[in-house]
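Hi Y.,

Following your request, here is the sequence exactly as I used it, all 88 residues.
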Amino acid sequence: MIKDLLGCMSQGETLSEAMENIQEARQLWIETAYECGHEIPLPTTEVEYSGSLFLQIPKSLHRNLADRAEREGMSIEQYILAVLSKAA
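Below is the corresponding structure, written out as C-alpha cells. Let me know if you'd prefer a different format.
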C-alpha cells in the first residue's frame, strides 16, 4: 500500500514480487490520475520527532501531578514520563 496514493495497493507471493507489483500499481495509479485530471499528491516525508512536547493542562491536574511526583521523590517531568510510558 502506498499511503500517499489513496487506494493504491498490491500484493505478491514473495517480498520481491510484492515490491514489483506495488511499483507497477503506483505507476498505473499515477497514469490514471493524470489521464482523469485528478490531483497527484507529492510524497510525504517522514516526520522527525524532537522529543519535546508543550502541553497546557488544567491547574488542578498540574497540582495533582506535582503532588504525586513529590510523593514519589521525582520531578514532575520524570513522573509524567513514567505514567505515559506505562500507559503506552
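The helical segments are 15-36, 59-72, 76-87.

Thanks again,
Q.
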